[in-house]
Amino acid sequence: MTVRISLKSAMLVGGRYHYQGKLLSGVGFAIDQQGSVAASLIEDGLVVGRYRSICVADDRGYPQIDARGQLLDYQLITYQGDPYTGVAYEFIGGQCGIEAFVRNGVIWNQAHWSNEGRFIYLDIPNEEFGEAYHWHPNGRLKTANISTNSGFFGSIGFDEHARMNHLSGYKGFLKSVEYISSKAAPFFPFESTADIDQMTFACKLRLSGGDVDDVFFESISHNKSIGRVISLHLNSVQMTSPDLRRFVSLEEVHVQSTDHSGISLATYLKQAYPTMRVLADRIKL
């Protein structure tokens, strides 16, 4: 958690900033009458350096402003009557809850924090691909989304106890995990596909995308926590004959697809596991 406050909410005592009866450590924002902002890193009440926005890919010294409600309204961001380019902050009750990089009045990247200073949402600049993250209220990662304009894309999701509940991979996402990890923000949860195999799975697990084939499914099936999965959802996967014998608690499988492969997969599963509840596009077989 990081305290992020307007310095108007702090007290300067003996050359040190105090907040809520303690020496301030975090990010302090000085806002002038024109709405221009100077952001500083503060440790033990002392300014130790300039704060660089997490939403900016480079360090060009962009202007910084108090957006004064504009980030909340998702309208064209202006400053002194003109479309704005630079960093914009939104302050709620003296706390900085939203931070964004704006170009010609349009939000390009943004980050949201809770009142306690925990991340809620973050999409950040990356020259290689787009990345966005959501967090649960308890501070644990909820989703990580990676996308490119023409190449791989995928997402990973976790419940509030850090158990993986969904994984989607398309156009080589799963084969690119090590590359993604080397370029992504430190919030990306995996360094290699081996890390996926070692995850703890939630009781309800959804797997999606063409990257999810029989080979990948076999690799995660050796994870001991796969035995806790009760409900398995397979959406547009490239599986033909998955082995469910290690899913000892499994009660139902939902198969969805935009083509006939989903019906074929569901039919195979019903034939191989006749006592299993199998649904194809929400129709029970």
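the 2nd protein, sequnce then structure:
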Amino acid sequence: MAGEVSGEKGLTDVFANAGSAVEDVQKVYGGTSWIDAVNPQAQGGSWTFDKEQIDSVIGQWEDLLEACLQDKVALDTLLAMLPAPSEDEPSSNYVKVLWDGLGSLQEYNDSVQIYIADFIDRLKAAKTGIERTEADNVDPFANVGSSE
């Protein structure tokens, strides 16, 4: 069909008529498109840590997990003490909206806790790998020539 129109738009399409705002951002980031500057075609990333760094990173993530657990306690407390101020419909609806919102926060908090716990497990596995590699590299010739 000639002149077919797609309902999908890319970021470039969305900001095509943004005018001076785009130009101002281009002045800061340079290049032909600020989108290219803030959204490069990255293929993914990786980190490298030494043993001391990874212990620190694991500690930071464990602190974040503890903060999420404290948030869960606070959310549970709020939900437990949230009765409707009266039996009329507007009050009941208001409390229902609050319950729904707090329930969504609980779901989000739970998913963040799962993510953090998984990430901590991965960091600990990486730490074990680092320790194993360091142990193997300490004396790579220690067992050379032994018949045992």
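The domain at 51-138 is CATH 1.10.287.850 (Helix Hairpins). The radius of gyration is 27 Å.
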